[in-house]
Protein 1
Amino acid sequence: MKKNIRTIAVTGKGGVGKTLFTYFLSKQLIELGIHPLLIDADPTMSHLQNLLNLTDSSNTSIESIRKRIIKVAIQGEEVEKQRIAENIVSIISQSIIKTEQFSLLVMGQPEKKGCFCASNALLRDVISNVISQDYDVILIDAEAGLEQIHRQVMGEIDYLIILSDYSMRSVETANSIANSADKFIDYRKIGLVINKKMAEFDNKFLAKIEETGIPILGEVPFDESLMKAEQSGESLNLLKNNSPTVKAIKNIVHNLFDTA
Amino acid sequence: MVNLQEIRTFIEEQKLKNGIYSVWNERKPEKVEFLKVGKRVWDGVMLKEDVGFELGSPDFPMVKTFLTQTESSSIHNMRITLIGQDIPDILETNPEFGILFLISSSSLSPSDYRKLERTTILSNSIEGVFEKQVGRKSWYQISTELLKRKLSFYHIGSALIQLIKQEFHEKIDAIEEIIVVNNNLLLDYFREIHKVSRIESIKRFQEKIKTIQKLRPDCDFENECNVCDNREICDQIRDVIAKRNEMRRMKK
């Protein structure tokens, strides 16, 4: 397995299936015996957390910790500041929801207006220290956008996966995301995954992808069994190993980590 | 990318062709009593009547260039090579002059390169030697007093090494200087090296800018904290960061 791929961020246009993709990616990692840290960076709804059947974490999200830091800073009391300085590592560690197979860190929704750069710097430093020690693979569902990821979690990503569906607009968004990634974060590799593929790509679509310069990492076909499971609210755990989604994502994991 | 071996070969050929040269190999430069060296050792005021001699001129400015690399084995630490005559033997008033610094370091940051250039601008760090600057042109003025004491290029060269070492301490592994006087071919060669290393330095600078830009998403005001309403809160958080850093240092 490639040891140099540690941090993977999944991003893309709204509705292309980032959270489900991240979910299945994490499943494959678990199957390989990896205990991944998943970062749910959806500021509005914690879809990933719901998919994983975990309880509400609004009190343990990074955003709630940020609020706590800002509150202490507003009060400006030396004792409290010292307490935060002493305990910030354990506060962040405790905010990570740990299960036997994976761990989850929820970013939460920013409420306070203003960037509070210093709080971001503090959080980023602690988070990267904590997670770099404890986890082999960090998988980010980057719904919030790369800017937010950079602000609160980390500035360096090993593999940036941009998800797109079979539409020109989605590929255009993928291109904008790649451009914005160049500006905001340090990533080492980038790859495009076409999700919910319903037909063979036509030349125009392929030309559009080529224009972006983003290499194709993989394709995930449209999966009726997945759609049905989603419609009926069934557990996605029941999705069979030979379902097109599971098979395709297994291939992508092989491409990512050379595990074939 | 400049190739140090090629540069050395060319300089060595020219040195032998020129015939007049000196090489000072020193592990520890001797302390020269009459030369005061260090930050702000004098007020840096050189009146016209005090100037005894000039190295370069506004028409033929000095060439000062730096070549840095990470590999230290190809640099003769503390060696000063002079190609041409030494100061007491030079007959003309404004000889053409250039100096090439070969430096090995694996830890110089992009801002250190600019600092390196600044360190060797002699405004008040070698008493009696003043770097006169007009625009981007510069040349050294040497006081009559130093000339009387038989100032040599060895003295200026070791003083410059001393200044760089003082400023960068352990960051620099080895440093060597090649000084050229009245040799147009070599001075043109130094100018070419300067151009190439300048491009490399710009590249390094651009890399730094890129890094800074990548930090900008952190801030809604492009790091202009002065216009931010939350500055006081951030200052308090910075205090928390300082406390945490202090604790980490103590643990080490």
Protein 2
Amino acid sequence: MRKFSQEIEFMGATVAHNMHEMQNILAIVHESAGLVEDILRINPDLEFQHRPKVEETLAHIRWQVQRGKKVLHATSKLGHSIDQPVHETCDLNVYARIGATLAQRMARMRGADIVCSPDEQPLPVLTGALAVLIQIYLGIEWAVGEQQEKRTVHLRAEAGKDAHKVVIQGSAISARAPVSAIQALAPTTRIETEENALVLFFPVAQETPV
Amino acid sequence: MQTKNWNILLVDDEKEFITTLAERLELRGITARVCHDGKSALDTVRKAPPQVVVLDIMMPGLKGTEVLAQLKQEFPAIQVILLTGQTSPAASFDSTLAFACLTKPLKLDDFMRTLTEAIEAGKGENHA
């Protein structure tokens, strides 16, 4: 048990450190592209053959930096998900979004998009961040399925009185929902299955985690 | 381009990042000094205090948070803008000491706005 805990801590800390390093790299790419944009902007009359292509490429860089930021943020949250004090509680609203971002690549490889609709308020729950992330990932993986045709998985977080919930909605799903695998991660999570949908209920915590 | 007579110190151990940021400020008429670690930042401030220090939190050696505390103790009138990462763990310092906290990669428009506000806020305080 101790060995497993050490391994998890190592994974978490190493992922978090290296995500910080990647963020520094992105920041340098972002500022360097910004400097070139500045130079073009202060020289609007400077015409050269490939100016439109250079401007278009700079726009691509800016867009990809934003995309990278989102992935970094989600992966870093995964790394920090074993830290205290978020070990026992987390904000379901935040981690629903993070879970959707972390599953994006897996979904895209199977031809699916994920649309996430978070709630507008924090949704503190009495479940650790790592368990919530894995539960949401398993739910999305089930909803994405193995089909290759283009489709969308909808994920939304909603407030409740005793339990906040995450609804994961797919289409034409034939596989059985991974209820026992999700339940094993956190026995306090209540699970309901609907047609092409999985609803995960997490017990409400009184305070919003840091 | 109008030259601004601002006195800025940029501090980050990521040399290419902070040098490029200084170059972008220069294109906007702002000359900034640059340091790459906390200790040299404190030495530089003690020799010639700037109006605003832009300070990365995560640096090897003296951490940005330690530099912040020391700066505000010795030079309370200096405004400090902290740079953090979205990937940084939850803040474990007194963020009220800082004028603002911005995340990297920076949005330059936001940065320029915050910098202008920090300069204005500093004008209302006496330098130590």
